[in-house]
Amino acid sequence: MRKMLSILIFILGCNQLWAASFKTNKYEFSINAYLDIESTWMSQMAMSMGSSEGPGVMKMDQQFTLDQNHLNLIFSAIRKKTRVYLNYESRHTFSTFDGDTGILGRDGNGSDNNVGSFRVAEAYGEYNFTQYFKVRGGSFLAPFGIFNELRYATPLFATIVLPFIYEMPGNYRAPPLIPSNANIMFHGNIGTKRVDLSYNAYIGASKRNNNDSPRSVDSGTGLENTKNKTFGGKLHASFREGKYSIGVSFNYTEFPDILNNVTNTKNHSSMLKGIELELYLPYNFHLQAEHVSQSNPEGKSDTLGKTKWGYYSRLMYEKYKLTPFIMYDVFKDPNETVYRFKNNRFGIGAGYKISKNFYIKSEWHWHWFSSQPFGTGIQVNTSGPKETRMFRSSMIFFF
Which CA distances in Å does 154 have to 21, 84, 267, 291, 397? Predict the structure, then answer.
């Protein structure tokens, strides 16, 4: 707690003493920070479990937590056509949850191996030849869908939680439907009177997501998450001066020839495909929708090779400092004990910008399964609840 308070005082103090950006004769510097503190109440939740007899379903009891979820310090320096960017991150500096910090968090695989410590989330350099062609090198979040490049920047989206595609509840024990970090990217913009078209093409060789340990195994596929070779791209078109836009994304990842820590004769691969839509409607309404699917790697299990997928829609009303919203998410993973049946989430909430540096949000969630997955013959323990309710609140400090 002392460490958390020190960080908070530091950020608030910096906000009073510094400008967010400043220039010299040759350079332009900017410093930004995001810090959020979340409270979560959750009713009983179904969780997958393992036993000597096979997979099963258990329940997590009702919980209430207070947690520092994100702290990001972002540094950027620009000189003429060159830009250097650093995103420094700390997760869960404090949490009232007694046990695995990630269990109520939104870490995708239910744990975070960097709890309370700083790490480099992104670090890259970029050279701008023209607006049509730019080159980026380093380690950075790959362009995919609406939120992947911004998923840490909590003040920039209306809700507290991102869609299932990007952030799964803690009872899901595999990574969400997001690509590995990229290392080299070519991108640019081509604009006409009617359409503004942007493109991204990238390659990389890194672990699947930022929360995996140096050597971890995806419980949904049994495949090692490290040293993945990946490439992908995104096309995005914006029409009528940004009033509506559409984008398509894809990512191909090749996993190493390790299945459950046993060397195999061939590598395994997966393909992510996504389509997104944004509409800025009359009367200050804003609609977002997206669908993503992933073809899982093939392996010894009969369930591997089946496609997992998710989609969502979110409608927001943006007026003055208040942003109420409703959301609906769906996710299904045929390889996972609990999520092999379609999971739905409906949510309603609002955000309010108290000042230029302070934002509050609250939202209520209802999770349920379209088909009840418990008691179908493969579970050892069938005590999982049929639905889950959550109430989240968040305070966000930023400059």
Answer: 20, 22, 36, 21, 10
Return averaged pLDDT per consecutive 10 residues of the chain, 399 residues in all: 48 45 86 90 70 50 83 92 94 66 40 62 96 96 94 84 88 81 95 91 72 40 59 94 91 68 58 95 95 72 67 94 96 82 92 92 91 47 69 91
pLDDT of 130: 95
296, 335 contact by CB (below 8 A): yes
Which two three-digit tokens encode residue 311? 């989609």
**pLDDT value, residue 281:** 93
- Residue 14 sits at φ, ψ, to 5 deg, of -60, -40
CA distance to 42, 69, 73, 75, 76, per residue, from 88 (Å)? 30, 14, 5, 8, 11
Q: Which residue has the tokens 């379903």?
A: 57
Cross-strand bridge partners of residue 353: 359
What pLDDT, on the 0 to 100 scale, is given for residue 141? 93
Give the Cβ contact number of residue 376 at 10 Å.
12
In sequence order, what are the residues at sequence separation of 6 or more whose Cβ sits closer than 8 angstroms to the Cβ of residue 134? 126, 127, 128, 186, 187, 188
pLDDT at site 214:
35
Topology given in CATH for the domain delimited by 2-204+232-250+270-398: Porin (2.40.160)
The answer to whether 220 and 297 have CB atoms below 8 angstroms apart is no
Single out the residue of 182, 188, 187 nearest to residue 203, CA to CA. Answer: 182
